[in-house]
Amino acid sequence: QVQLVESGGGSVQAGGSLRLSCAASISVFNFKSMAWHRQAVGKQRELGELVAEISDLGVTNVADSVKGRFTVSRDSAKNTMYLEMDNLKVEDTAVYYCKVKGRNLFDYWGSGTQVTVSS
Length: 119
What we know:
This protein is mainly beta. The termini are far apart. The protein has strands spanning 4-7, 10-13, 18-24, 31-39, 49-55, 60-62, 70-75, 80-85, 94-102, 107-109, 113-118. Strands 2, 4, 5, 6, 9, 10 and 11 form a seven-stranded mixed sheet that branches. Strand 9 and strand 10 (107-109) form a beta hairpin.
């Protein structure tokens, strides 16, 4: 069973920065891809927005809404994925979820970390 633990969320003012981490219980080489999704509090995470993703080959992709402000990366030695978020906006407020796709094409989700951006 894959376990994913997100951390790094919090409250910041607009224009500030946060760095989210997603630590996996197994080697990241077991995953076809790793991704960050976000969703408003109380809503179904599977219906949220794909924010950024990184493939097993290290190819990254970020949503247009965060392009130029968010950067996704991975440290294979630490089995951890990161989301560096700069110039945060009020509309970035959400619960951020880590999701990985296993080699069996099954999706595994973390429990989420809250990001709140105030004006």
